[in-house]
Amino acid sequence: MALFNFRRDTAPQGVNAEVEAFLKGYSIEVMPRTAEKVEDFRAILPKGTRVYIAHIDGTPIEDMVATAKRIAGEGFDVMPHIPARIIKDKATLADWIARYKAEAGVKQALLLGGGIPTPAGDFDNSMQLIETGLFDGFERLHVAGHPEGNKDIDPKGGDEVVMKALAWKNAWAERTDAKVAVATQFCFEAGPVIEWANKLSAAGVKIPVHIGVAGPAKLQTLIKFAIACGVGPSLRVLQKRAMDVTKLLMPYEPTEFVTELAAHAAKTPNFNIEQVHFFPLGGIKTNAQWVTDNGGASGVPANA
């Protein structure tokens, strides 16, 4: 039984038009174990939604491929994570890609370093994955972005190494036939994200950005994930909220964050954040309902 109705062609009453436009074509992330809790993705996501499949260290490739096959079979574009640091060697990478293509028809992937500090094999970063040539022929390839820095890449907390890597990837994006985008870690403050996006543009990085947004969740859950994922200064938004007794037990929703970004995008034609990518930390059904309530299901998502 379908949980939501995605057949409507107009936005729900009271929806902010700027937010509705900003949410158009949003993507969302699942893991094999969270995907198992969803009976049918067609009941909760609009047609054409891109579904990332997060590959956590220790997850068997068989589970990843089976999840990709199942979600693709329900009519969605699947984009599995390919984390460099958990892959033993080029032969293993080639085997994974072959399985994804043969069993799930995968033509898209998110290439990233991965969250473990010590590589399990030959690869340390996404650039090394690209240089294997094994992703030639893919229709779309995304790379990771970190608006608040990444201490795995820049231990001192700066962004010099990250910016050099993005410059390299920008040059590669201009050579490849694949569509390329930067999919970012989730954040909680719009101002610093806008500054970061503008910094990319000023540095000549033309790759479009898909900004990471944490979906609705309990405050304690968000703080736990934010610390584990290395979220930077914008964590203070949650910490400030935690100090307010009236809000402590209320679930967090990304309304303010998304609304501020949407307003900036509406008045800035060349803004390089073109889409939203959701991390459903409070559950994919809860996240999907929030997007629906804010206009995200009022039209067919873009393919960009």
From TrEMBL:
The keyword Oxidoreductase applies. The lineage of its organism: Bacteria, Pseudomonadati, Pseudomonadota, Alphaproteobacteria, Rhodobacterales. This is Methylenetetrahydrofolate reductase. GO terms for molecular function: oxidoreductase activity. InterPro entries: FAD-linked_oxidoreductase-like. Keywords: Oxidoreductase. It comes from the Bacteria.
